[in-house]
Write a structure and sequence with these properties.
There is one protein chain. This protein is mainly alpha-helical. The protein has helices at about 5-25, 35-45, 50-60, 85-90, 95-120, 125-145, 145-165, 170, 175-185, 195-210, 215-234, and strands at about 35, 65, 70-75. A three-stranded antiparallel sheet has the order 1-3-2. The protein is elongated and about 60 Å long.
Length: about 230
């Protein structure tokens, strides 16, 4: 890799950390095995500074641990920061894709129906009103097969609900949910046109939250995620 300055250096360290991170995730870089900054620098043709930035990224994700006189030591999965959206994105592009999708869907099944219930109770009128046109745009773009546009509306829809649920921990998961929605699209795991039941489900969630009906909002969100779980299982 040729090394530049500013944004170029940022891209270099992200590309380097991603490749090394995928090696840890896939077991190519075995647990307990050390690598030095010099090795990384030589392999990627980068400076020690950029190699150090890449290693700091990997350490923040729990994938490696810097050890004095040993370098960077690959860590066991028990040490990984599984809720970090970057690690989630990497796992979605690794041999662990199916495990990551399954575990994220299980998490969403627990959190998002409760978040929809909370939004119906706690969201302000502006948020409630915003969900209705978002659901309408999801139907329009979904039926047209405009998946990129659909994805952006889908992400905003779920983020808005999590952030207006009245639970700060649910709000903190909004980027995680955005990452898995993005990942499903990038990996070709979305149908060419979203299922009609999913489009209707989002409209039902929006309507229930707008009307302040928590039980209906919860049930409609549960229906959306049951469809997601079935699609992933297939």
């Amino acid at each position: 890799m040729s090394e530049g300055h500013g944004d170029d250096a940022q891209r270099l360290h992200l590309a380097c950390s991603r490749e090394l991170g995928l090696e840890v995730i896939d077991g190519v870089w075995p647990e307990g095995t050390p690598r030095t900054l010099e090795e990384i620098s030589d392999r990627f043709g980068i400076s020690r500074t950029v190699a150090r930035e890449a290693s700091a990224q990997l350490e923040a994700l729990g994938l490696v641990l810097a050890r004095r006189r040993r370098g960077l030591v690959a860590q066991s999965p028990s040490a990984w920061n599984y809720l970090n959206p970057l690690l989630i994105e990497w796992r979605l592009h690794s041999s662990q894709r199916e495990d990551q999708l399954r575990s994220l869907t299980q998490l969403r099944l627990v959190v998002e129906p409760e978040a929809a219930d909370g939004a119906a109770r706690n969201a302000d009128i502006h948020t409630r009103a915003r969900l209705l046109p978002l659901a309408a745009e999801m139907r329009r773009t979904g039926e047209a097969g405009a998946l990129e546009e659909f994805l952006q509306h889908d992400i905003e829809f779920h983020r808005l609900i999590l952030r207006s649920s009245g639970n700060e921990l649910f709000a903190a998961l909004s980027d995680l949910v955005a990452t898995v929605l993005q990942g499903r699209t990038e990996l070709g795991l979305m149908p060419a046109q979203p299922m009609p039941v999913a489009l209707a489900g989002h409209e039902a969630v929006a309507e229930a939250i707008f009307r302040g009906q928590p039980e209906q909002a919860r049930a409609a969100m549960q229906g959306i995620l049951d469809e997601v779980r079935a699609a992933i299982a297939d």
